Amino acid sequence: MAKKSKKQQPGGTPATVALTAAGATYTVHSYDHDPAHPSYGEEAAEAMGVSPDRVFKTLVADVDGALTVAVVPVAGQLDLKALAAAVGGKRAAMADPALAERTTGYVRGGISPLGQRKKLPTVLDASASAHTTICVSAGRRGLEVELAPEDLAKLTEAVLAPVSRS
C-alpha cells in the first residue's frame, strides 16, 4: 500500500484540488503502480487501456536557466531544441530531478502540470489538440486525470507547440 504523501491535500492531490477550484471537467483514473515498470507513462497507458498518444508525461527542463514544463505524449520524446524555441530560448536541457521535485512539489513519475508549488512556464505538445481528452499525472504515481487539452492549456497558461518527436 502506498504511503500518504505529506503534500496530499484533503479531498485529493494539489492537481485535483486545482481542477476542482477552477470548475474544470475531469475524470480521475487510479491504478496500481508497479515500481519495477521501466516507464511511468507507458505503465499508465497500459493500466488504463488508453492509447499512448493520449497519455502525456510532464517533464521539467531548464531553458536558459529557467525551469520550464513540457507536456508530451508518452509515446514520444521531448525535443529540447523545439522546447527552447517555443518559449523564446536558445538552449534547453533536462532539469535536475531533485530540483524539479522541490520546485513542483511532486515526485518524479508523478509530476503533474497542474497544482504545482511554483507556477512554471508550460508548453503542451501540439498533438494534444488532435484528441477530445488527454490524460496527465494527477500528482502521484498511479493516478491520472483525463481532461480536454484546451482546459489543460487554459489552466496552465500553456503555449501549444510541436515539442515532441517519435
Task: Give a written overview of the molecule.
This protein is an alpha+beta fold and 166 residues long. It is built from five helices and ten strands; from the N terminus they run H-E-H-E-E-E-H-E-H-E-E-E-H-E-E. A five-stranded mixed sheet has the order 5-2-3-6-9. The protein has a three-stranded antiparallel sheet with strand order 1-8-7. The chain has a two-stranded antiparallel sheet with strand order 4-10. A hairpin with a 2-residue loop joins strand 7 and strand 8. The longest helix is centred in the first third of the chain and has 9 residues. 41% of the residues are buried. The N terminus is likely disordered.
Task: Provide a short characterization of the protein structure.
The chain is an alpha+beta fold. The chain contains five helices and ten strands; from the N terminus they run αβαβββαβαβββαββ.
* Oligomeric state: single chain
Helix tally equals: 5
Helix/strand-derived category reads alpha+beta
Low-pLDDT segments, ≥5 res: 1-10
Number of strands: 10
Strand arrangement across the biggest beta sheet: 5-2-3-6-9
Shape: globular
The gyration radius over C-alpha positions equals 14 Å
Helix/strand order: HEHEEEHEHEEEHEE
What is the element layout, followed by pairings?
Blueprint: H1 14-22, E1 27-30, H2 40-48, E2 56-63, E3 66-73, E4 77-78, H3 80-86, E5 92-94, H4 97-104, E6 122-125, E7 134-140, E8 143-147, H5 149-156, E9 159-161, E10 164-165
Parallel strand pairs: 3-6, 6-9
Antiparallel strand pairs: 1-8, 2-3, 2-5, 4-10, 7-8
